[in-house]
Amino acid sequence: QVHLVESGGGSVQAGGSLRLSCSASAMYSTVSMGWFRQAPGKEREGVAGIYFRGGGAYYSDSVRGRFTISRDSAENTVHLQMNSLKPEDTAMYYCAAASGGDLRLSQPSTVHYWGQGTQVTVSS
Q: 3-state secondary structure string, the chain?
């Protein structure tokens, strides 16, 4: 079992920045981690993923160029730096982990573990 704990959400004006962090209780069996978000009345969507034991990062079209995902393997932590935030980025953001397979941003069903979520609110 992997426990994920997010931090760093909050409120910001459009154009501002926030940094989310996700701390994992264990990482030995985890292949990839990422971030999903869900706005009220909308489906959960993947925004960024990263291979924890090497490889690169990948992003949804809606955040590419504005968000950056990074990892700290020694601390079992993943970060999401969010710049140039827009009101449409407002959502609950969830840390996610996939064990033994790829975490696919288009398929929330590939996620094995979820964090409790942290709210991001961007005002215009």
A: CCCEEEECCEEEECCCCEEEEEEECCCCCEEEEEEEEECCCCCCEEEEEEECCCCCEEECCCCECCEEEEEEHHHCEEEEEECCCCHHHCEEEEEEEEECCCCCCCCHHHCCEECCCEEEEEEC
